């Protein structure tokens, strides 16, 4: 999000963004108002213009397409996604079949698969895994990430889970799935406007989490919604200290030419 904001400050509007920078409607709407233009393909960007690659990463073919149109590019791929790409390429080069757990059509899946298309097999369900056949069962690597363990811990203490995220956010939807699989009601919301006091009937403790791309301002707004209704105790469940630091893309760290 900051990458697009900084690009707008430095280069002015419009700044084109391939796909949604993150899967969160609030973020996309805010950036659109500031002058960002979201497109589905680099083919939709006028030749020679500036395009930002989203946090989900892109396949090598997308970079080649941008170069063919003489586009200036800023790569906002999340470093954790880049790590998955590097691991996938490394295992593929060593003769492994890479089993990618995800959903067809998701940008992150498309970007990772594009790094080693001949060696990556997509698994979307348990049934897919059961049907999986690979050339050498001794040489299999998995590429998958999640943030679900904290929710599993949280579910032991709550009767309702609220997940802040957009409907097209895969990781937000999975948090809902984890909750419902554990027998705890869950609701996916984008903002406080979607909250329904009727959900709280018979509920003593509510859990609150968010998808990876939901801004903190949305989390705080939900907490304030509860405070305005008399809730005094709001506690944070901390399982691990998160201290990963994400740098801005190199293009924005460099000083602009005089």
Task: Describe how the helices and strands are arranged.
Layout: H1 2-11, E1 15-18, H2 25-34, E2 36-39, E3 50-53, H3 60-68, E4 72-75, H4 79-93, E5 97-101, H5 107-113, E6 120-123, H6 126-131, E7 140-143, H7 149-154, E8 160-164, H8 170-181, E9 185-189, E10 206-210, H9 216-227, H10 250-253
Parallel strand pairs: 1-2, 1-3, 3-4, 5-6, 5-7, 8-9, 8-10
Helix pairs in contact: 4-5
Tell me the distance between the termini: 26 Å
Reported by name, the CATH topology of the largest domain is Cobalt-precorrin-4 Transmethylase, domain 1
How much helix, percentage-wise, in residues? Answer: 25-40%
Q: For the largest sheet, list the strands in their spatial order.
A: 2-1-3-4
Q: Using the 3D structure, state the CATH architecture of the largest domain.
A: 3-Layer(aba) Sandwich
| Rg of Cα set | 21 Å
Secondary-structure-derived class: alpha/beta
- pLDDT under 50 segments (min length 5)? none
Please give a handful of descriptors for the protein shown.
4-stranded parallel beta sheet, 10 strands, 3 domains, Cobalt-precorrin-4 Transmethylase, domain 1, 3-stranded parallel beta sheet, Rossmann fold, globular, 10 helices
